[in-house]
């Protein structure tokens, strides 16, 4: 069980676009490179249980590394989640949840969390928690900018 101190939570941003538009940005995986500075590449069939192959960028070093996870929730306009599962060569685990909440017909809020699980959860939080927090805060801002641009152009 993850302890509260092993959870990274981004800032909550209010987005001047409908939840529908924000959702469309999140599931338009082919275009992540145009707006997502943390995860410029992601491949997934968007069906629960599908493999999720990502390239993520450490905002402190700029290094991009491959990450392999599984899609565990895909609730339109509300929740998109994937998780890293332990395997014999790497017993670490984590779950990322991205939350969209409609405020009204033209506004919503967004935030994301990452829960570090597994045998090394304390070490992972100590070594990676700060840069994951910085990256997730930037993703929230990147998503806000992209969704508002698309909404402003009539999408």
Automatic annotation (TrEMBL):
InterPro entries: Polyketide_cyclase/dehydratase (IPR019587), START-like_dom_sf (IPR023393). It holds the Pfam family Polyketide_cyc2. This is Polyketide cyclase. It comes from Pseudomonas fluorescens.
């Amino acid at each position: 069980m993850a302890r509260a101190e092993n959870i990274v939570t981004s800032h909550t941003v209010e987005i001047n676009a409908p939840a529908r538009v924000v959702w469309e940005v999140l599931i338009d995986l082919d275009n992540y490179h145009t707006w997502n500075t943390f995860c410029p590449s992601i491949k997934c069939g968007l069906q629960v249980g599908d493999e999720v192959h990502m390239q993520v960028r450490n905002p402190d070093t700029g290094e991009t590394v491959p990450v392999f996870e599984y899609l565990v929730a895909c609730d339109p306009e509300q929740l998109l989640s994937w998780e890293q599962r332990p395997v014999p060569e790497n017993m670490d685990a984590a779950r990322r949840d991205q939350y969209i909440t409609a405020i009204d017909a033209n506004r919503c809020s967004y935030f994301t969390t990452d829960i570090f699980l597994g045998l090394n959860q304390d070490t992972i939080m100590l070594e990676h928690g700060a840069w994951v927090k910085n990256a997730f805060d930037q993703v929230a801002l990147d998503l806000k900018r992209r969704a508002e641009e698309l909404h402003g152009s009539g999408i």
